[in-house]
């Protein structure tokens, strides 16, 4: 029987802040050196691109490449959208090897594991294929795919449907307290992840009910 000490057997795992932790070298923000490297003021990037565009992009309503083509000239950027994304994605790619290793152990024990994350399509593909995260989980459930984002209730409803698991068999591990609260509201178990947590230990100690 696919159970282990009474704990939920379908893990929904956050990506950024849990499985992926920033710049590969030091964990800093991917944009920490963007002004020096690309000549783009990070504050203007926020004002011109992220603030007006990201909400629609992460929900799959706006194409990321189209938005960059429109915004980069305003930022006086000399890079193409493709070069910008390569810079961004490659610098937001530090894998938490302990978490990834724990996923492998859990799957050998019969767990099903999905990333449950607010992402747009291109970075989702980058994470799963270029970084190889797809080898360690059963899939990725992400906001642009389903048209809803954490902590919206619609995200958790869609994630449960895609996984095929009943809410009482699901557990979210996430570094956002609001996402954890929303998961519990949806009938899931949930754990608020903090630096230094041990994924295997926290799941081993958690009981259902």
UniProtKB/TrEMBL annotation:
Organism: Methyloligella halotolerans
Pfam families (UniProt xref): Hydrolase
Highest taxon of the lineage: Bacteria
Protein name per its UniProtKB record: Phosphorylated carbohydrates phosphatase
Gene Ontology molecular function terms on file: hydrolase activity
Keyword Hydrolase: yes
EC number: 3.1.3.-
Keywords per UniProt: Hydrolase
Gene3D superfamilies: HAD superfamily/HAD-like
């Amino acid at each position: 029987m696919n159970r282990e000490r009474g704990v939920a057997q379908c893990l929904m795992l956050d990506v950024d802040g849990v499985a992926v932790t920033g710049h590969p070298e030091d964990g800093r923000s991917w944009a920490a050196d963007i002004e020096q490297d690309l000549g783009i003021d990070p504050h203007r990037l926020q004002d011109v691109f992220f603030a007006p565009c990201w909400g629609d992009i992460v929900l799959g309503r706006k194409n990321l490449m189209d938005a960059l083509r429109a915004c980069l000239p305003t930022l006086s950027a000399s890079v193409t959208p493709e070069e910008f994304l390569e810079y961004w994605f490659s610098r937001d790619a530090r894998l938490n090897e302990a978490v990834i290793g724990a996923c492998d152990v859990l799957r050998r024990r019969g767990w099903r594991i999905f990333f449950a994350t607010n992402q747009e399509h291109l970075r989702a593909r980058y994470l799963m294929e270029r970084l190889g995260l797809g080898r360690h989980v059963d899939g990725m459930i992400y906001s642009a795919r389903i048209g809803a984002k954490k902590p919206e209730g619609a995200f958790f409803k869609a994630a449960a449907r895609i996984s095929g698991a009943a809410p009482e068999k699901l557990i979210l591990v996430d570094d956002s307290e609001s996402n954890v609260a929303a998961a519990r509201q949806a009938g899931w178990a949930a754990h608020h992840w903090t630096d230094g947590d041990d994924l295997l230990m926290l799941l081993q100690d958690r009981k259902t009910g």
